[in-house]
Amino acid sequence: MISAKSNDKLPELQLPTRPTGWPKFGAIAVLMTAGSSIFVGLWLGLLLLLDPNSILWLNRFLPAWSHVPIALSNPLQNLAEIEAELQEKQLSLGAPLYLGDEMIVPVWQRVQDCTTTQCEAITALRVYFTEGDVTGEKRYSLLSEVRLGTAALNNFSEFKLLPREGDNNYWLSLEGTNVTSDLTTGDRYGVLLHYDPYEKQLVNLLTWQSAAGNSPRWEQAIASRELEFVVDQSRNLEPEFEIFRVEQSHSAPILLPVNLEKAALDLPVYQEAIKLAELKLWAIAQRQLVEIKQTLKPSQWTEAAENQFQLIAYHSKRATEKCESTTLNVGQTINHCLRAGDVNEALRLLQNNFDDPLVVSTVVAFLEASGNDLQGRLEALRSLDPFREAVTIWQFLSLTAQDGSQAAIAAIKTNQKIDDKLQGKIETTLKNVETALSQQTRALSADSKLMGQVRPARRIQPSQWLQPESEAIALDQNRDWHILDVSRFFDGQQWQQAPFTIDVSNFVPGQSLWQTLGLDQNATINVGSADMHQPTSQPFGQVRAAKFRNGKLQLLVEGMQKNRTGSNFAFSQTTLRWLTPNTLSLRDLAAIEPAWVDLILMNLWRHLRASNLRSENTPPSLSTLKAELGAWQVSPVELTGNNHAEARIQIYLDAKGKLATPSVMAANEGLTAYNLIFSDTGDLLYSELDDPNITPLKAIADLQDGGTAALVFRDQNNQITLKRWDSTRRIFNEL
């Protein structure tokens, strides 16, 4: 639009001046661009000729209608053909995952020198292109394969999708359990994978280990962000987590750790807070960071500082929840408050519960076990004014728990920084603790739960035996005395196994030992024999005295009845109850639970095949297996604590190690029985076929301690071993 001027003259046209050098440079630029385009085109063309799938990455930049098509370099096959090909290599296919037009499937291989029930591991992951033919049958062409290592921590047994809410990426989890390692090296391990739908490949993003033995999860751990990848590293009931942020890139996402290795701000007060967090004093560190953040300008508080703050807040919340929990007993709450650094609250709770010996003994046991670990935290807190007095008291309580009250009092008198008032408080607190431990002890277990081997006592020396002061009797040599060598006892929280560690130094010796074992509630001893079909149990005698020396625990039992069981296995009356589940044939169970039996039969066949007891390369039909194995006996019994029965199956081998047929089983001559246990989902949980020297299962018992039923084993020396299901390791562990 041209506005009117005051005069009628039109502006003169200005002719452009002739440029001197710029056209030359423009021409050169055009030529260079054209040359580059030609070169890129030739390069892409060469890649297309050599490997058509090598330029699939272009699809992420192209609209869907112009995507580079997949070039199938491998023939299309159906599943049967793929499985047959793998079986020739002693491999097998696992459960597939379908992602669009692709199928990702694990390849299983038998583990060499297997010593567990999980004798197969995922050895590779394959990506297949899927296509339906005119008959509707799906056919598959191999696009790519990721082969896994064979190291101990590469025995992967689980492969699954790990979806992340609000994310269109394909996240996959490959996991395994290392049953031979302790928790310090990582009980559960795995790999987080990402599937690239454009390049049709799996990308390894992160290898992880969980000391807590838990699978990782997506969680909003960092405030105002998307979900992060969280790995549980908690030990000894203390929260500890690794957190990884997801950063998007032009190809696969990137996982970046959020950690405290380097302080995000170059400020002494900030670095001090980070040091407190490294000592796991999360709540104290969080409070300091809140104060620092409030004093800084928003521009000074960096994103890295916010990430570290959120990491500390995440741990602080979980540590504080333990300290504030109302579901724990007071002693456990005090221990969690000490871990969290809330020494004032811990001291208040202890002072209010000096009359409860369970609380005091629980706290002292914690200080004995964790005193060295606590010292660093207590020293760090001692410099903070609000906690100075409580910290000092806890330091000396820790000395009392580890070295006795005399050493603690001596340390107080040599500490010049403690005034008379604080020294008096410390001495009073220590005296109350000593009184609670020495005079008011009581058992952690209300009922006696112990077991071992009983034998006749030829001659006893009364001076060597401890008796409860209120129930002491004369140990007459003319009575029918027996010695029970205790192999394990339940302390109210867990089963303790010989050699034992029992602190009786601060206790009234006889009374405290009596109460620790629960003999003040029930001192009756039974004898019995472990048998799957007809276990026995009968009252035998009464415990009259006890002896504890060098980790060895013995009970002096007065025999009241003749031992009619023929067994020397002895246990307190409230220790166990034999379980005798009903037995029926697999055929009869199939009529009741057909789907369950189908799963059991397929996994049973696989195990028999792996044990060289079946010769087929491909599994027979279910109807064939039912016809052949239907007469085998099965006992449903709940063993894993999931309120669903497991199946114990007993199979027989003849003298030549061959699988016995039903007709031979009926004769039952020269046969050896082997036990197998399958889960409610048909998975094999336990087998005696893998180790010819294994101690066979003899019975199943309820230990009446609130846990799952236990498997009972008896070796050639009549020694009893108990095993219980470990849901984390997924094996039966010895108690």
In short:
This protein has 735 residues and is α+β, with helices and mostly antiparallel strands. The chain folds into 4 domains: 79-219 and 246-253, no CATH class; 268-439, no CATH class; 450-575; 584-734, no CATH class. Helix 6 packs parallel to helix 8 and helix 13 (586-592) packs antiparallel against helix 14 (594-610).
Calculate the terminal CA-CA distance, rounded to whole Å: 94 Å
* Molecular shape: flat
Class computed from helices, strands and strand pairing:
alpha+beta
Low-pLDDT runs of 5+ residues are 1-20, 46-50, 55-61
**Portion in helices:** 25-40%
Give the integer mean of the pLDDT values.
Answer: 83
How many H/I helical runs? 16
Strand residue percentage = 25-35%
Largest sheet, spatial ordering of strands: 14-15-19-18-17-20
